Amino acid sequence: MLNRSGFALPARTTSTVDWADMLRAHFVALDVADVGDGRFTGSVRSQSIAHLQVSNVMSTSQRIERKSRLIASDHQDFLQIGMIRRGSAVVRQDDRECELSRGDFVLYDTSRPFDWIVDGDPHDDQWSLEVFTWPRALISLTEDETSGLTAVRFDGRSGMSGVLGRFLHDLASSRTATGPGAHAVADEIGDLVSAIARTALGSAPTVGGRALMRDVERFIDDQLADPDLSPTVVAKAMLISTRQLHRLFAESSTTVSRFIRSRRLEKARREIVACVAVDRSLGQIASHWGFTDLAAFSRAFKDEYGVSPRQYRTAAAERSGDVHAVTRPRRLHDPE
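Above: the chain's sequence. Below: its structure in token form.
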């Protein structure tokens, strides 16, 4: 059973009221409706690989919705993949709809309304679903990319999406444990999801400046260590005007500077995890990714991830099981 705040959450229920509470405890606030006429049952088993939660969900035919009022009440911002293992489903988000059968999977974002209509197997009305949950900030897909990928069916049996589907199913079928390298593993799985999702996005007709945006993002990623990286530098390298560059990012509901900062923070976060047992100061890591002001880096990190770089490193060290990493004294110039 999953444990939250010292209390073990039940793994199974026959009550639809308890079922909604169980889904909220494991995922986000959801409404359950249109439950089938047969005897109801529902179960959720979740395990964690650092910040990645892997869940096995089973129940009977029903509708599961995340409405705007629920989003406003819990502010949970996750990116999820749901894979059908038994039964079938229709998923709706961002004015799109897709149908899923056994082995298919779909990406959806909990910061916007979505709707699952799940039908059980005709023989017993039972369905099963594997759900993979990442904090939205820890997946490298941009808002524009994500909004173009939600409620899109991925074939979990063939092609590159089949490779990902088989990998995710093996992950959900095995008993994982936290330990050294867990954060890096969770990040690598997230990178694989992002890469295959971008491949699917790239195979679709380009919309507006999406192709240019991908080129801009690649250039920025290659230049993150340069503290002088700026909108002017990016625009010059891409042979476009600064005004055009700002307009391109505005279409993705962000800014050039915010995007650069977010990418730098993500690279720094990953290096903090990778170097948790290495005598490398947070100041060195921050400088390596283009941050010239340690206090500004610490504030930006806490704004992005909710904890300071030092707190994040301590938590990662504790999960790694490396006692020396946990007790190693803080370097003089490390930000709080």
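The domain at 3-203 is CATH 2.60.120.10 (Jelly Rolls).
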